[in-house]
Hints:
Layout: H1 2-7, H2 13-30, H3 38-41, H4 44-58, E1 66-70, H5 78-84, E2 89-94, H6 97-110, E3 115-119, E4 131-135, H7 140-147, E5 162-168, H8 172-178, E6 184-187, E7 200-206
Parallel strand pairs: 1-2, 1-4, 2-3, 4-5
Antiparallel strand pairs: 5-7, 6-7
Helix pairs in contact: 2-6, 4-5, 7-8
Amino acid sequence: MKNLLRYFPDLSEKQKEQFAQLPTLYTEWNEKINVVSRKDIENLMERHVIHSLGIAKVQAFKPGTQILDVGTGGGFPGIPLAILFPESDFLLVDSIGKKIKVVNEVAHALGLQNVRGEHIRAEQVKGDYHFVVSRAVTRLGAFFPWVKDKFKKQSNHQHKNGILYLKGGDLAEELKESKLKRIKSYALSDYFQEEFFETKQVIYVPAQ
């Protein structure tokens, strides 16, 4: 929690309580349904919670923003972002039903009213969203076609509606291969000091 508060000093008491519950909740659920790797569960705040919130350093969400989290697994990046932005609405989807069970149970335990988990493939999701978020589900060129028709026309943020994608490593070849336009890359090492973030990035792809 100490590092979380260093990077996000303006959390309300309720938000602090919700973030503080995450390690216990995920440790308990992970014993029933494996949604976080064994080595990462001990570093949940750094490698999952703060990592997810890297998106917030690139783009804060205004009240009423609608966000789709594709391939959320156990709820990352959607759950931490939903805690940070309680006035935005999040739909978290995954093709594996037992992972969505964890998402909904964790959201319920935290009292999050702005999160809904659904067992569905990204291509089958109905509705339009301001932003799609995700964490290294697949290569960007394969990911974009799943969500290309799911963006609202009206943008009201610093970034136009689009994808905010958490990725790691050398992405030059992958970004070139994707043939997507106006991509921007943000190094998380500019925001977070831990060694874990040295190769981590947020890739922004506007709707096109």
